[in-house]
Write a structure and sequence with these properties.
- With 102 residues, this protein is of the alpha+beta class.
- Helix content is 17%, strand content 18%.
- It has one domain (26-101).
- The strands form two sheets. Strands 1-4-5 form a three-stranded antiparallel β-sheet. The chain has a two-stranded antiparallel sheet with strand order 2-3.
- The longest helix is centred in the middle third of the chain and has 17 residues, at 42-58.
- The chain is flat.
- 0% of the residues are buried.
């Protein structure tokens, strides 16, 4: 497919950008873009994550990784974790049944 936008067809990092390869350096991944080509939804996504984390932590007394279910790393083109199981105890939930949530 021909590229028509100026500046997008710069020298590729790690070979052909249209070729699927698992050996690429994930640190060079531009999944959400960079510079003038950054994802326009990135600021909204960051704001949503901030709001979710603030709401969770305001209502949480304790949290820890679930030792019985190890984290699963995401695969290219994603990053981070595909799953990360956490035990959470709500504030004031010490006497409640089912206080620990996954």
């Amino acid at each position: 497919m021909p590229r028509t936008a100026p500046g997008i067809a710069t020298e590729p990092v790690g070979g052909d950008p249209d070729e699927f390869r698992l050996d690429r350096d994930p640190g060079l991944n531009l999944l959400y873009g960079a510079g003038v080509h950054v994802c326009p939804g990135a600021p909204l996504a960051r704001l949503e994550l901030l709001a979710i984390m603030q709401a969770l932590l305001e209502r949480t007394e304790w949290l820890a990784l679930d030792a019985q279910r190890p984290p699963v790393h995401a695969y290219y083109p994603g990053s981070g974790f595909a799953s990360l199981h956490v035990n959470v105890r709500k504030t004031g939930a010490a006497g409640e049944s089912g206080a620990n949530r996954h």
